[in-house]
Amino acid sequence: MATPAAPTTNGATTNGATKDPYKGALARLERDGFVVLPASLFPTFDLEALRKAAARTTEAARSGKWPYIRTLPKQFPPWPQDTSNGIWGVQHLMHPSNPDHMTFAKSYFDPELLKYVSTLIGCGEDELTMELYNMLVRPEQDFALRWHRDDIPATATDEEEMARLGGKGWHAQWNLALYDDASLIVVPGSHKRARTSTERNADPYENDMPDQLVVKLKAGEVAFYNNNILHRGKYDCTKERMTLHGSIGCSRASKERARNVLQHGVAEWVRRWNLEGLDEERRERAVAMKEKLVKMGQESGDVGFYSQDE
Ligand SMILES: O=C(O)CCC(=O)C(=O)O
């Protein structure tokens, strides 16, 4: 009998079944709804520089000097500026008024990352569209997000869920942990099916959902996940967290994607961004990706919010 293939962290198998790491990652994303890629696949990520930039940006956000923030206890945009309960995220890392924006841009437009993104979306590299680059940070009090799918409301019927889950997402979303991070919790496989009655009827903050899995990232690892997998965030205020939270789309994406992206307010500044300072290897492609985002903003008009009051 043949020896079963031994999966490696990046989804490749050791007996030759899937030698292409990009396709291996895609197979795992499709099967489980998420895939964790080791730091060794991204040798040009400069973790030290990113940590320093992240610390400066977080400090500016906590002290009121950076206005683009996710404030407690709100889960979805728009976030009020009231920081009395603290923050759990920092928005728009690549905004030109952030002194560290180029350090973040260098990692966002990383050529190796873009190869994974392109395979995971199923989209040519020339069709990639800039979307969002934010950071999820340690709140100053314990905090949790409810179980959710990013773009399918909890009120959706089984049929509505299946209709949305059956369509192509046309984007890739990832968490790049700058410190070890065990905040993201998913139900593997739930990106392909409607919620079970247990999931539907569970407490929105259920701590023990059947089959739930904590995505444990070591510093430098990248988790790509389907943003409509059933998931939540649970944050321990004693544990440092600086996790870069990015998404990239494809020019073939629909209006629904435009709302998901533009509700964060990125169109308001991206037009003014000239990407000066980005190295030549990244710059040309980055400019093309940015132009597609500008176009999305111009064509979409007022997109509203996914869940304004939560
Ligand atoms: O904290 C995380 O990693 C998950 C964040 C999340 O679920 C969200 O922003 O919708």
Automatic annotation (TrEMBL):
InterPro entries: Phytyl_CoA_dOase-like. One of its GO terms (molecular function) is dioxygenase activity. Residues 1-20 are annotated as: Disordered. Residues 1-18 have a biased composition (Low complexity). It comes from the Eukaryota. Pfam families: PhyH (PF05721). Keywords: Dioxygenase, Oxidoreductase. PANTHER family: PHYTANOYL-COA DIOXYGENASE FAMILY PROTEIN (AFU_ORTHOLOGUE AFUA_2G15850). This is Phytanoyl-CoA dioxygenase family protein.
